[in-house]
Specification:
mainly beta, nine-stranded antiparallel β-sheet, 4% helix, globular, TAT_signal
Length: 197
């Protein structure tokens, strides 16, 4: 099942090129707020979608629970999201200057990638991502309630991955070589946590 009601075609990109194509602002810090300090998620004139989880193999953000999509780690067939926290994203809204839009769902590998004219590298058939029909997801770059920092943009595959796990990650741009994602010069993204289970 894909994360929207529509059917969902999602290069190495320098920081300068990324900045030229979209307004990106970073945040500092990498703290996870404890469950005891959680507050309600801010209201926006768009939709929120939960059901996003981190793959324990390639360390990227993917849609679905369990064994889903094609993983960037060539040693396994599918993403493994079992036991991941449930994250949620704002979509299809002009949320303002504190957000970066143009994040997409790839229907080939089930991962989230930055798709502002950039399709990166997908492990599903080892081609570019396919974001056809995807919602336009936005990621906040300020302090958020119920959020986790440390997420980064990989300049090789254009995926969203968990920065603290970069050393053990697997980037599909180097299929079969087991090279990690490259978050060099990436900003530190904040993600909402829907639930800690």
């Amino acid at each position: 099942m894909e994360p929207n009601d529509r059917t969902t075609t999602p290069t190495t990109t320098s920081r300068r090129e990324l900045l030229r194509r979209a307004a990106v602002i970073g945040v500092g810090g990498a703290a996870l707020l404890g469950a005891s300090t959680l507050t309600a998620t801010p209201a926006f004139a768009g939709g929120y979608q939960s059901g996003w989880r981190v793959c324990h193999e390639c360390k990227t953000m993917v849609w679905g629970n369990g064994m889903v999509g094609k993983c960037g780690d060539s040693r396994v067939a599918k993403h493994n999201t079992a036991g991941s926290w449930d994250y949620k994203f704002l979509f299809n809204t002009n949320a303002g200057t504190d957000f970066q839009s143009n994040w997409k769902y790839c229907r080939l590998c089930s991962s989230m990638y930055f798709g502002y004219g950039l399709d990166g590298h997908c492990p599903g058939g080892r081609q570019t991502h396919d974001g056809t029909g995807s919602f336009d997801y936005s990621i906040y770059f300020g302090s958020l309630p119920q959020s986790q920092s440390g997420w980064a943009y990989c300049r090789n595959c254009h995926g969203l991955f968990f920065g603290p796990w970069q050393a053990s990650s697997a980037c599909p741009a180097f299929w079969g070589e087991m090279r990690p994602h490259d978050g060099n010069n990436s900003y530190n993204y904040q993600l909402w946590v829907q639930s800690y289970s």
